[in-house]
Amino acid sequence: MNLDRLRSALNPGVRLREVFGWAMYDFANSGYSTVVITAVFAAYFVGGVADGADWATLAWTSGLSVSYLIVMLTMPGLGAWADRVAGKKRLLMWVTAGCVISTAALALVGPGQVALGLCILVLSNTFFSYGESLTASFLPELAKPEAMGRVSGWGWALGYIGGMLTLGICLAYVLAAQARGESGSQFVPVTMLITAAVYGGAAWFTFALLREHSPARPEVPIRSVTQSLQHLRQTLREALPYRDFTQLLACAVAYQGGVAVAITLAAIYAEQVIGFQPQETMVLIFVLNIAAFVGALIFGHVQDRVGHKLALSLTLLGWVATCFIAALSTDKATFWWAAGIAGFCMGSSQSAGRAMAGLMVPAHRLGEFFGLWTFAIRLASILGPLTYGLITWLSDGNQRLAIGSTSLLFVLGLVLLMPVNVERGRLAAQSNP
What we know:
The protein is mainly α. The protein has helices spanning 3-7, 16-39, 41-49, 56-85, 88-105, 114-136, 139-142, 148-179, 184-209, 225-239, 243-274, 278-306, 308-328, 332-359, 366-394, 399-417, 422-431. The protein has two domains: 14-211, Growth Hormone, Chain: A (Up-down Bundle); 223-433, Growth Hormone, Chain: A (Up-down Bundle). It is globular.
């Protein structure tokens, strides 16, 4: 691909190196989600910090849910402040520093220190989620409307690379530490320091290359939490005539809740139920990320050929199969099949859903309607893992029942997807003033 074609995707005045800096933030923060939330600290918290107690999984999912709830309630106000003073980059720098410092602070959490671990987890994941939202807000400034998907994909691809690189460095250290006879309480803290260092180091490219393009907008009102919720309710009410879009929103809450379970609980299930060792879990998540990368890449072309609705339906069926295989797995080899299918479906389902939403959003209300989409995804990130944790706790630690029950979220997603008519939704978005 030549440079002229790359530049043609960008808004006037935007340089390629600036887009590289923006995409490097996905590279930077993916290590946090991969190592802390999915592969290493999640399993260490449940098995090491909480000593495998029946309530440990519920405690982990509750901590994540609290952080997502904080972001849902406060991000609109923070975003409005950033727009008002042209301070998105400045705010991004502060929340990045907060996430890097709190990620490093996870190294202080040892066996039995559940309260400390949860407090630092909530803090670090809140800062991480703020960073995700802020970096996404730069995309319309950088890319032309018809090329946003393409430019977003550059960041997505770098994100997978960054996550796998950070996990690979951590895996190399863990293998060396285990060869020296060290336990999880000795080597997990070092992986937190590695993750924090990669996050901070890679984000430096973002802050060195990315510019603030939007001017200050003093007319933008700063809304309180209550006002933000009222505005969200009003936007949802105004979105109701776009029935296919709102139906897809409901579908997304269901199936993205199941995807959130896979992201936040895969390592916990692998170690607590199947018997994976920490280094095996890290290899598992590494391969899962490769499968997700391939799934997103392949299905990006498939959905254009067979249609977005059929493509999403196929991935949801794949997720149902994943849950059943995982629930029935009695050995590592069988569970590897579940992980491979999950990885492939993870990238493709997220890509297909977002593409469908983009077709049914009116052009003059992109920000508001995608705000609803983001709210739906955040809500799913609370409901899915929290339900899993509650089922595990109420069933005395039966995670097989919990993962089997997660299949119902994908079945519900399929049921809610059936009435969606993509062409009707697209025409509604084009015709409504």
